[in-house]
Amino acid sequence: xxxxxxxxxxxxxxxxxxxxxxxxxxxxxxxPSYFAVVPVSGSGAVGQIRPVKIAxxxxxxxxxxxxxAYEFNIAALLTLDGPAGTSPADATWxxxxxxxxxxxxxxxxxxxxxxxxxxxxxxxxTVVVSYRGLEARQDYEISVAQTYYEFTxxxxxxxxxxxxxxxxxxxxxxxVQPLKAQVTIEENAIVGSASTSLYAFSTGADLPSGSMLTxxxxxxxxxxxxxxxxxEFPYGISAGSPGxxxxxxxxxxxxxxxxxxxxxxxxxxxxxxxxxPNVAxxxxxxxxxQGFTTSAPGSGGLVYxxxxxxxxxxxxxxxxxxxxxxxxxxxxxxxxxxxSAPWYCTAxxxxxxxxLGESGLPGGVGTGAGCINVNGAMGGAAGVAAQGTExxxxxxxxxxxxxxxxxx
Length: 408
What we know:
Elements: E1 4-9, E2 23-24, E3 34-39, E4 53-56, E5 64-65, E6 70-73, E7 78-81, E8 92-97, E9 104-107, E10 110-113, E11 123-131, E12 134-142, E13 144-145, E14 149-155, E15 158-160, E16 162-163, H1 164-170, E17 179-185, E18 190-192, E19 201-202, E20 212-217, E21 220-222, E22 231-232, E23 236-237, E24 247-248, E25 253-257, E26 260-262, E27 274-276, E28 279-281, E29 331-332, E30 345-346, E31 386-387, E32 392-396, E33 399-401, E34 404-405
Parallel strand pairs: 5-13, 14-17, 15-18, 16-19, 17-20, 18-21, 19-24, 20-25, 21-26, 24-31, 25-32, 26-33, 31-34
Antiparallel strand pairs: 1-3, 2-3, 4-7, 6-10, 8-11, 9-10, 11-12, 22-23, 27-28, 29-30
């Protein structure tokens, strides 16, 4: 509200021609007096218009993750000061520089949406806010990180043919989101295999890109031992079978091995049969390889059906504690005294099964003058300690028994 003061002045009558704001107070005076009301500015006397001030504060945006709803309210960082009626709602917003990651939108000072892809580096955005000709701008950096399904498992006691991928699916993982998994095998725990055709521990294959797997082993991962070679009927022998593998890595895996990783021992080869006219002896069966569960021994050789000639004895089973020894090859006399001395031919004994990470031994050679004395069968190969070396990141190697090789 303005304050008006009464000012008295004697003015020439002609000066009134341009003074429309003046009022005549007395028309009868010889020299008329006139009065003017003039607004006067003064402290507190006249209202001042407050200038508008605009500012946009900096901030670190919240972390963004693929597949997860996101919002960053930049409008909350706006400071707008001015006279009555000044409202942030009347401000206008724009992106001056930078492109939002796919799936995110910018509107009214908000960045929102669901990110669809990763950013390899932070994305710099310059945001401009305008209000009645005034502007403020600020830079922000947004990064989009991977979203994981987190899975942890701890194995104590004994587990058989553990498949990490299947265990995660059983816990609720959808198989689509990248998997962040950590499996710990506790001290004195054993993860083993009940079949030489299966690995004791497998990561699973074709996991989503970006998956991160960690295995911490303080116990043992052991493949199954191979079976011993058999004496075949008639005049046949077989090699020991290969031991089973311990670890199959088909997806990148960080391995911290503070314990044992061992392939199953191969089965021992069957001993050679031996013969000459009217003399025949069966070879011994191979021993089973050392491994997680009991491995089968090889049967003894039988050169004729029935009890015409002595048969070799069967080998012995292997187990977690030790490989099995091979069976003893038979000796044969001259028919019809084939079960009594003098012995003309002696067949070979079966080979011992392999210890953890070792091949089985070959079967023995037959002996005897004039006998055919063929060689025994080969022992089975050891199971691999780990397959997929190209996918393994070793944090700690620990004890490894058996080969570590690439995927075929």
